[in-house]
Amino acid sequence: MTHSIPTLKLLIDGRFVESTTTQWRDVVNPATQQVLARVPFATEAEMHAAVASAREAFKSWRRTPIGARARIFLKYQQLIREHLKELAAILSAEQGKTLADAEGDVLRGLEVVEHAAGIGNLQLGELANNVAAGVDTYTLLQPLGVCAGITPFNFPAMIPLWMFPMAIATGNTFVLKPSEQDPMVTMRLVELALEAGVPPGVLSVIHGGAEAVNLLCDHPDIKAISFVGSTRVGSHVYQRASQAGKRVQCMMGAKNHGIVLPDAHKEQTLANLAGAAFGAAGQRCMALSVAILVGEAREWLPELVAKAGTLKVGAGSEPGTDVGPLISRAALERVGGLIECGVREGARLELDGRNPAVAGYEQGNFFGPSIFSGVTADMSIYREEIFGPVLCVMQAETLDEAIAIVNANPHGNGTALFTRSGAAARHFQEEIDVGQVGINVPIPVPVPIFSFTGSRASKLGDLGPYGKQVVQFYTQTKTVTARWFDESEVGGPVNTTITLK
Predict the structure, then answer these.
(1) Domain with CATH 3.40.605.10 in the chain
(2) Is the Nucleotidyltransferase keyword given for this protein (predicted)?
(3) HSE on the CB side for 256, CA within 13 Å?
(4) Nearest CA to 31 among 328, 284, 336?
């Protein structure tokens, strides 16, 4: 093994330990192909040790007062703010996104940490007094035990921060398996969590691939699993973990549509479409990858193409970059293959982003903004999630025709309508069968006082990440019905003087 390349550690029982594995994977800078670090695929014994330490830590952590838990996250959000530039630089180097996008990745996760610091107001039960004579009924929201999270490559700061802060704040312990493609920023966030006061065993980290995922799904001591990633892996996780009796929430693939009405604010809408389709190189489950131009808005296509053509492709660390590289060579080849597929199936390639020249980064996984027009619902580029900077443009005569296109798609992660008409906006939000709706907001991911509410084929499990729903996901509601007899009736000392010795 090359000693000049750092090796990532596992976190077991509060200590960062070197894995004894023989299976390693390189973390590669997607703009340069430089190997940044090596990731161990944890051994089975190491993974069992992580879960065992989490199970042991739960015994005391579940009894830790809610205020003490909240104070850890108050400290944690402060540490994340102090290290924002450092975290963004690590994220940009290993994932490829621009420094501005990388900061946004961290900051959206930070919002959930801030929400976790208010856990005292979130984990409240209910009480009904005198449901019968002398009888009260009340609920306790109690933690489940050991929970686990499996996170994707595209948001290596935000999505881990969606998971473990809320799980831990509600009194659970947590085993995290970050993406093996870019876990460096995740590990730095984990270091800061320990610095903030997360006790040994309350947060553990294992690295690995399919074997690690399966162990988390099968392990009898893990009570709940949160997953964000592809539909293929998410469906496997949901089925396997559900059969093992666990609670599971899986946020999966998407095909998000933006409907443009001719009365929309043109400049703002075109800028929004370009940012939402091509930002983060299209590697977002909430990317706006389909635009449906309604009526006269169909005439905006040339201006949309021109707008996309002005975006600068380059390394995320370079100032002025709009579109960074794709995560891997495999991703680059896949997106290129789908472009060829679209041309073969009869879509018109209005803007071809293949093989952009990026001076000084000739080895980078770069793909420029690409736009297809004449896209129909039976084409591969429409049916598949491209996960690259590719926008499919469709047309409709009316808003209802556009809504029908969206509702016929199996996915329901996000959608947006661009209009100045309140009546059209209200009709849209009522009729659209998608979990997260934007009105002149291209990527309608809600702030953490609400929950992420993707729907249909984009989600398995009924409760979403963060917000109010995740407090329910990570707790068991225990209902207590209590009856106390008046002790004066049974000869007890309710009204007698008690002498304190």
Answers:
(1) 10-253+454-480
(2) no
(3) 33
(4) 328
Angle between helices 99-116 and 84-95 (to 10 degrees): 120
How far apart CA 286 and CA 436 sit, in angstroms, is 10
Q: List where CATH 3.40.309.10 sits in the chain.
A: 256-409+414-439
What's the helix, strand, coil split of the chain in %, to 5? 40, 20, 40
* Residue 356: per-residue pLDDT: 97
Largest Cα separation within the chain, whole Å, is 92
Quote the pLDDT of residue 58. Answer: 98
The position carrying tokens 């060829």 is 340
Q: Which CATH number is 256-409+414-439 given? A: 3.40.309.10
Average confidence score pLDDT of the chain? 96
Cα distances (Å, whole numbers) of residue 95 to 185, 187, 192, 234 = 9, 14, 20, 21
Q: Which long-range contacts (CB under 8 A, 24 or more apart) does 135-138 make?
A: 135/481, 135/482, 135/483, 136/481, 136/482, 137/479, 137/480, 137/481, 137/482, 138/479, 138/480, 138/482
Measure the N-to-C terminal CA separation of the chain; round to a whole number of Å: 71
* Amino acid in position 440: N
- Active centre residues (catalytic): 285
List of the chain residues with pLDDT < 70: 1-3, 488-501
What six digits make up the tokens of 338? 């789908």
Superfamily of domain 10-253+454-480, CATH level 4 = Aldehyde Dehydrogenase; Chain A, domain 1 (3.40.605.10)
Bridge partners of 176, per DSSP, are 149, 205
DSSP 3-state of 364:
coil
Phi-psi region of 477 (alpha: psi -120 to 50; beta: other; left: phi over 0): beta
CA 257 to chain centre: 19
Q: What is the pLDDT of residues 453-487, one digit of tens each?
A: 999 999 999 999 999 999 999 999 999 999 998 77
- Say what the pLDDT of residue 495 is: 62
Name residue 222's amino acid.
I
Q: pLDDT (tens digit, 9 = 90+) per residue, 294-333?
A: 999 999 999 999 999 999 999 999 999 999 999 999 999 9
